Amino acid sequence: MALRFSSGHFPTQIIRSREVAGFMLTETGYTPNQKLPKHSHEHSNFIIVLQGTFSEHLGRKTRWCAPLSVIFRPPEELHADHFHNAGGRCLTIEVATQFWDRAREHLVILKDSADYQNGLLATTAARLYGEFRRMDNISSLAIEGLILEMICEMSRLSVRKVSLISTCRIERAREIIHAHFSDKLTLSFIAESIGTHPVYLTREFRNRYNCTIGGYIRHLRIEFACRQMANSDATVAEIASASGFFDQSHFSRTFKRLTGITPTKYRKNIRPH
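Above: the chain's sequence. Below: its structure in token form.
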């Protein structure tokens, strides 16, 4: 059975610990080749790697943690750690649920486990640890501000990551549509192919391309039909079928609505001889 640790408790040596502005900061030490069994923590937390390297195992995923990398773990995340030959030291900042409740309207709330090798975060983390070590009458205020800086930067990085994932998924959906526009595509099929929900797909596709998926497919089919009528001798019925339309009548109505003329008239205009 996996261990679960409450705030301020860790399965290793605690070097020093302080509570600052509702955040619990704990510096921990690790011996060479020390292994921590699978465990979780009550609160979400940030880990600043101060010294040494270690591997962290989360199910099938393994992350490599090096000095001044910053890790975010959501509450109750199961993980196991293996410190390497030099052992190590870390500073853990535990964040109570109440903080996220207050910050929800101002920040993108961090939910997923993540690790950062970001220059700004590394610099902020080093300054934070310096204040934690110094701990004079100004350090509490400085530490609170630096923690908030780190959380804001992670929120920005999270937004960029989500935006990039969204862009890649919608672009992949567009590629699927281009490859299969003449087939009987469904929203469910496209959404499943890119690993998302049909509602999300519909909304994000419209936001990106300023039209519905159905409208986009109709335009692709008509563009294909125009090329076929310009460059082949296939009949209108054959082109209608190859373009993915149910029948010639449906094709002709859609073609005229989008181009302003009938398919026959278009062919005469584009191929006068």
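The mean pLDDT is 88.
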